[in-house]
């Protein structure tokens, strides 16, 4: 009965329910779950271990030396039986979780909070007024695009699906969240199709668009500019094309890459504050200026909220700070004003933090600055709003600060080299990829190539499922052909082909495989046979079955009997008989 009690307590916990239901569309791991559910990664890992112990999930390491454990559901349901001996709890084995389970929400569809935002009458009126079914809210970082998206959502008379997009999102995750939303509002068809194994994007999107249209819903994709994956872009673009009565809203820092001219749309450009808005914004920071000074500050900052915030902090920290001359660059001036207030030690910390892609940890920063009292420096810089806390042990530089800091950082090559050493020591897929990236950014493609060739099975360890293939694809594209050995360049072409094939681009993959095959040394029979198997797969996906068989048969002539390449080619040919 003790185990039954544990099981019931675990299932009664809403966080555990959200984790279990997040595994409905596809397996995942603690980092992705924490990111998508807004939870702490350590806490998610602890709960997954408990769920695994109780037989609700099964975890499997992607490779022996990698610190990535992926989990999938091991149960399709729970039965409670009242027997002579008391209450019995039975876990049923899983084929597929019933669609009805998604009605207990794993996803939360509440609109995000937007505290301390200064009202912007003109833009707010634009986003709430009746208009085309596609609304694009466009502007640089920090100008209030999310607030305006929330404003539009609150004015919409029908249900609102809000999705804040992330670079690690997959088609399955974004679609399943939208399908669960539709199911919650009485449209079960998209979720039923997914639960029954339907994976054709056109079929799924047609069903989802029809469901959203029937409910006259609003779909908001916040931070559209962060999307890197072609399949997620295809999902958004498919809704742009297919929605008829539902409204679609994109908040973005850059104009959408696909916006058909035949689709009616409205673009709301979000610029700087007006003079009155700037006055109200500075008042929220505890700063009141006389009218002439306010007018000067507004003109120099162009009313940008981030620049106004930096000015306010400078003013409060330094008292009567001097205003820039009329011909000065506003951003450079405000950066210089802040920089003048920093100690040399604080400058070193900011410069070191700027080499990380986005977030960084205390440990990672300490690796770049050994002997530096990092906790003290971070505390001071966080108070000055130069560093932002993004989790229990995660920090980030403000985007504006990051660009300035990296441009002026001293010894970037040395910092990137130290970052590469730290990332490689983490023993994770992400660490391995970021180590290669840092070596490239340090101007050392030879060491980056050595890291690349140390582990050539990144796609085999499901780097696509883990959400890192955009980073990997970017890394591979930045290797300079003339600065790496010919055999390494062949490997790079091969790996790029693997990523293209895995993400649904067989034509691109075939071209890359053929380039790699053309560069092979005459005696490299194993690699030639392996590339023949990959070319055959790409041809098969393009519907060129006879050509695929011919390539596979030719490759089998190079393959040594009993090798993995030979077995793969034999299986491919047997499957086509």
In short:
The chain is of the alpha/beta class. Helix content is 54%, strand content 11%. The longest helix is centred in the C-terminal third of the chain and has 17 residues, at 486-502.
What does this structure look like?
- There is one protein chain.
- The protein is α/β, with parallel strands linked by helices and 577 residues long.
- Strand 2 and strand 3 form a beta hairpin.
- The chain is globular and about 85 Å long.
- About 3% of the residues have low confidence.
Blueprint of the fold:
Layout: H1 2-12, H2 14-22, E1 28-29, H3 30-37, H4 41-53, E2 57-61, E3 69-73, E4 75-83, E5 86-93, H5 121-128, E6 134-138, H6 145-155, E7 160-164, H7 171-184, H8 189-195, H9 201-214, E8 218-222, H10 230-242, E9 247-252, E10 265-269, H11 275-284, H12 291-301, H13 305-318, H14 330-340, H15 344-353, H16 362-368, H17 374-383, E11 387-391, E12 394-397, H18 399-408, H19 412-425, H20 429-441, H21 445-454, H22 469-477, H23 486-502, H24 506-519, H25 525-541, H26 545-558, H27 564-576
Helix pairs in contact: 3-4, 5-6, 7-8, 7-9, 8-9, 9-10, 13-14, 15-18, 16-19, 19-20, 20-21, 22-23, 23-24, 24-25, 25-26, 25-27, 26-27
